[in-house]
Write a structure and sequence with these properties.
- The chain is α+β, with helices and mostly antiparallel strands.
- It contains 4 helices and 8 strands; from the N terminus they run E-H-H-E-E-E-E-E-E-H-H-E.
- Strands 2-3-4-5-6-7-1-8 form an 8-stranded antiparallel β-sheet.
- The relative contact order is 0.26.
Length: 153
């Protein structure tokens, strides 16, 4: 499953970067986040209860930041295991100055196995895109900044 989105934050790029890396903000905005904490300068451990329609599995996993260029970009990759199987993915996040604040570009690829796939790829895709959109909108609310979807490049 592939996802591509762009969002305009009415905030300075450094403020957006700080929010994306603040575990207090992340815990508040990740739906179902039960815990998240830095385990090194580039890794986070987390536990998330995911809503996949009528099923709500809890996934535990690790996120790794790579290709980090502070306040500009990073790649976030992770794996989570839960009662329905394994989910994994990677996302590239790019920040750029824009006339009205910061343009965040997001592209991700994810996959799952086992029971997660039996729920249905279409349901998971719809749920994931809603979670992605809500995540970035919630980051903006936590920052006190308006976030709007930006047209595709």
């Amino acid at each position: 499953m592939n996802f591509v989105s762009r969002y305009l934050f009415a905030a300075h790029r450094h403020a957006v970067w700080a929010a994306l890396n603040d575990v207090r903000v992340l815990r508040a905005v990740i739906p179902g986040c039960e815990e998240i904490h830095w385990t090194s300068a580039v890794t986070l451990d987390l536990k998330i209860k995911v809503s996949l329609g009528f099923v709500h599995p809890v996934f535990s996993g690790e996120l790794l930041l790579s290709n980090v260029l502070p306040a500009e970009r990073y790649t976030l990759s992770g794996r989570g295991r839960g009662p329905l199987g394994l989910a994994q993915g990677a996302a590239d996040i790019h920040l750029a100055d824009a006339a009205d604040g910061t343009l965040l570009s997001f592209s991700a690829d994810g996959k799952a196995d086992g029971g997660v796939m039996r729920i249905g790829k279409a349901l998971i895709g719809r749920s994931a895109q809603k979670v992605i959109d809500g995540f970035f909108e919630s980051i903006g609310r936590e920052m006190g900044a308006i976030v709007t979807a930006a047209p595709a490049a």
